[in-house]
């Protein structure tokens, strides 16, 4: 799932790759001051500040301080914030002025009520009662609900106008970008937008069975390095922005953040009753909350609870840089819940749903003088309907992108937008188009896109070159391996997908090649068919089925000493369809050869003692994949799955060997199953595991049996046995379990000396049981037809293969180090009983 979920955060990754370029903007007029609450005098964070009738504005910081620098001026300053009345202040035509703003809350403050209670702050009793009644207000408990959704996402590069050391001026990039228009942040510094999108969709959810669906009707997106607006439309719609604080955990940036209204509320949080106010016509308790330990990955903020029904009315929750999370200075979620009509209820109270959500992610600067990034999300719901479920088949597919989704007409978006968006937000599209069309930024976007996707678009001929990782390798068989691949993109066709590659080894002086033709038969349900042919060098134990789709690990296995290499001619014809309800079915007809480059043979006929070193197989392959809760995202002509974090994914495969069909030499059957699952264990962290099982009730040469994936590199790979050699074991019946538990900051957050490092502790373990039948063992002769001694294999005995480990994650925010012990088969030749494995990725 990890390689898939990297696509989901590619937009944020683009922003982070743009953080190293200083920019300066011209300043003519400067307005600054502080925005405070009229009742309490406390600063109001993230209030909108704009010059009336102009296209410039800013927001206040966490203390309510703002600073607006602009070449434009006007007659009045407009200030607004969620939950407050908008006010206008006159502006003087001077170079610099201070305007302190006082906003009046739209919530009506009641008379002071003193509450005396035993057992501590009464906020605990209120939260306890709200949690007891949460089934009455949790949207997941409704029979169904649906609404029209408008979402807007913006990403900015900010904090780049800081003076460099020794008073040095801006560099060439800074001088270039200083000529571009910018939006000003809360301190009057320019913030350059690098991505902005708007999406209009219909969102549906039902409870029994639990199903969701989003129809993305219209969308537009613009950004540096963004070539397909359809991907951003799918990833920034309501399907991925469901923040329900009645759930035990809020999933945000692949993190499980405990809700202050979840089961762990008393373990993680402390509460304080502040006041009693009226919010949206409902009398509410105002309660502050914060984590008991500042380094815990948990929210702090304020919630407003209905005094009569004890339902959530509003919440303002944030996480700052003290928490165990990387690259983030602050995350802030503001959410409003409102009563919506329910025709199935006789009471006038109705039910309550979140109708407005605002999310802000402010990244942490990697160094004091480095730029940062700011991501803002705005989601509004309207025309809400509840308890009107659709038929189950209506919810398939869960994520649907309309054929005519692209809509760039300003008139359409002006009519569809909710009220309350600032002038800066409305002009972001114009500015980001200016930024992305700068030649250097276009080049930078192409570099970032090449890094993430692996393919580089070639001009206007609708071809992409790549993948980058396969361009070069060096091994003992091929010497220097040079690889060039091409594929068509969506500009060529959204139905036909053509691809191919050619590779050459300087040592074996042999060309290898591959080609494929795929055709999208239909898009609802999504069905694709294709044919493929390759002739290339392979090695036992690192087949595509074993590697599980890891392009990085697959590329690395072509380096070094290749033991038991062979040439393979491979033909594949397949059809794949998404059947709904999380099911994907694939049927294929495969034909492949085995041409060993090492001493190999198998007995063809026991009576004649005849052997052979070459064989060809023909097989039918049936694969069923069940991924409940997964969302399929379409990217140009690619399609990938974003799986639910708490749902298992099961894959079952059956392979039937056909003798004499297309010169197939064997009749056989292979059964295999893979189960992957990840689940939360409360405050103890998250557990991930996978189970592999298989059975081959046939007598066939050992290269056709199951060869568990080993790992002889210094890098840790999550689906391999990390202290097992390549091709160390063979099995025709097997069961394997791989598990990992991440305690996150449970231990290190409690150690004063190192908790600032934000390390995370992990424990891992892998077990493999299996064996090989006597019939399959007997197929190996002593020598081949050339008189060479045939290399055999080792099978597992009654003792399972076992390795366990422990590690530290989040070292320097990107590194992970695992110490792994091999507990069994410790006397095998050329193996390691203990190893240190490293891995690295951008980890939040």
Automatic annotation (TrEMBL):
Annotated keywords? Carboxypeptidase, Hydrolase, Protease
The protein's organism comes out as: Larkinella terrae
Q: Which Pfam families match?
A: CarbopepD_reg_2 (PF13715), DUF5686 (PF18939)
SUPFAM superfamilies the record matches? Carboxypeptidase regulatory domain-like
Q: What is this protein called?
A: Carboxypeptidase-like regulatory domain-containing protein
KW Chaperone (keyword) present = no
Gene3D superfamilies per the UniProt record, alphabetical:
Carboxypeptidase-like, regulatory domain
Q: Which GO terms describe its molecular function?
A: carboxypeptidase activity
InterPro entries xref list: CarboxyPept-like_regulatory, DUF5686
Lineage: superkingdom? Bacteria
